[in-house]
Amino acid sequence: MRIRKQFSGLAAACVITMAPALASAAVVKPAELSDLLLWYRADDLTATTAAGGSVTSVTDASGNSNDAGTISGYSAATFDITDVPTISFDATLKDALGAIDTLGGSGVNDVTIITVYKSSNVSDSESRPMGFGGTGIDGGSVQKNINLANDPSLRFDGAAIASYGTSITADEYFTRSVTRSGNTFTDYFNGTQVKSANQSLSGPIVDEFYLGDLHADGNPGGGGASDHQVAEVIVYNRALSTTERQSVENYLTAKYYSNAYYRFEEGADGAILSDFGGALDHTVNLNNGTGVNSVSFSADTANNAVPLTGSANNLSADFERGSNQRIVVADDSSISFGDSSFTIESYVKFETLADGTGSRQYLVWKKGASAAADSQLDYGIVFAEQGGYSATSNGELVFVQGNGSSTHSVASGLVINDATDWHYIAVSFDAVNDIVRFILDDQVVELSNTFTAAANGLDLVLGGHISGTGVWTRYDGLMDELRITGSYLELNSLLNIPTPAALPAGIGLMGLLATRRRRG
User: Where is 163: in which H helix or E strand?
Assistant: First the structure.
């Protein structure tokens, strides 16, 4: 089952059921706001730790050196890439990581904790995946600890803020934000406030921050035991404003709640994707792809870090046309769009130019991996030769759709005519206003598109196209950071934001809505 979650209200027994939508605030990387205390990103471990490997330390990305390390008497965590990369804690083990004296032992007053995680035990107040202090680890200090509990509640030694009137769904990722401003503590699930209450503390919160079995008490498997998978944790030494909090939550939404995101980060230079689980989807939707004919990893990347998220970028995917290589992603409703809005982005570097029918560069093509006419296509992106798919120049970026009986192409006028450089491309379909927006590096073009497409039940192919007679045309080159999002994204929500000078007249970075209602 694919998982996209959003808190759906405040009534009793509410559950998280769909993906969080982008709030109206901008997307802001955590380090762009002041008083960042610590920042743990599990995806940073892909460059150093194999799947299933022990995690004995997590580097603090805030630059404050508040690294989390192993704790005496506790086991190390585990690196898990079953779905999104996570720091994983096992209910049957006494495992935890911690950062001691994050403020030099002076304690924490106002604070904000923002995290993406999931847990198996969501009914027990002793199931606590993270927080400052914990009686099971450090003996506690009455009312000076704050733990995020899964029942759900906020727990202090000797006190609690509970009775939320909602619940967390077991084994489903969500974004949780907690702020303390004075004596007021507020808890948000996927951007929606679910609890706000006052709790007087006898002094500053202890400044030891922990992940894992905060209340194992030497009894793994007992009360409060839970599997926890923590994707990211961001902590500020102050209460963020509403806009600031939303901007950081937007960063997490862009990173984890797109419809599919292939980062190609799990292996090593020259290694085969299939030896590392294939093309892993780094969102909660688990749209993992299967590499065909030994698609490999390459250390040649578009950049050292993704501009939108700041995540390290160490590897890309290398497709060799002569080996008939491609990636196949099983059909799922989260990647089937038809006549609804969506955005597809990637970095590309060609090894041959698109100057003939057999040298077209097919980036994505949702028509399956068996012979079928292009009229059966849901959506596709191709760099075509002059005359192919309405292209007027060799190497022109073209968007293609089908409806079961016919095919429609929109040629962008944007061209890649080199086989040496990396390029960023994005194609966004606005089904409300009948617009296709193309981006190639810092070039932005918007064109009308009145064609009504139809979704299909066929697989998505990355790097290949099969004709109605069974002839394959393959991509030849590198792909990096391929992301699919089920909305017409604002320009400032793209992985690579074009410069304002490149924008057509009348378009501003904040001028486009993150999500738009579908036309009737």
Answer: none
Token duo for residue 101? 């004296």
- Which residue in the block uniquely carries the two structure tokens 């847990």? 119
Distances (CA, A) of 71 to 18, 113, 226, 318, 402: 36, 21, 18, 41, 57
Specify the fold of 36-256: Jelly Rolls (2.60.120)
Domain residue ranges in the chain: 36-256, 260-502
DSSP string, 219-282: -TTSTT---EEEEEEEEESSPPPHHHHHHHHHHHHHHHSSSEEE---SS-TT-BGGGGTSB-B-
- CA 173 vs. chain centroid, Å, equals 11
326-329: strand order across its sheet: 289-292, 326-329, 460-462, 361-366, 379-384, 396-402, 407-415
Q: What is the pLDDT of residue 9?
A: 30
What pLDDT does residue 510 have?
Answer: 37
Q: Tokens 């762009």 correspond to what residue?
A: 32
Q: Which amino acid is present at 477?
A: G
Is the peptide bond prior to 152 cis by the omega test (within 30 degrees of 0)?
yes
- What pLDDT was estimated at residue 143? 72
Two domains, one topology: 36-256 and 260-502: yes
CA distances from 417 to 349, 350, 354, 394, 399 (A): 11, 9, 8, 7, 18
Does the pTM exceed 0.85? yes
For 260-502, give the CATH class: mainly beta
Q: Please choose, from the candidates 271, 289, 269, the residue with its C-alpha nearest in 3D space to the C-alpha of residue 280.
A: 289
The DSSP element (H or E) to which 111 belongs, if any, is strand 111-119
Phi, psi of 274 (to 5 degrees): -65, -20
Alpha carbons 305 and 255: distance in angstroms, whole number: 13
What's the pLDDT score for residue 5? Answer: 32
- pLDDT (tens digit per residue) in 293-319: 999 999 999 999 999 998 999 999 999
Distance of alpha carbon 221 from alpha carbon 282, whole angstroms:
29
Q: Is the dihedral of CA 269, 275, 277, 279 positive or negative?
A: positive
Contact at 8 Å (CB) between 131 and 209? yes
Q: Which two tokens stand for residue 231?
A: 């994707």
Query: 441-470 pLDDT, tens per residue?
Result: 999 999 999 999 999 999 999 999 999 999
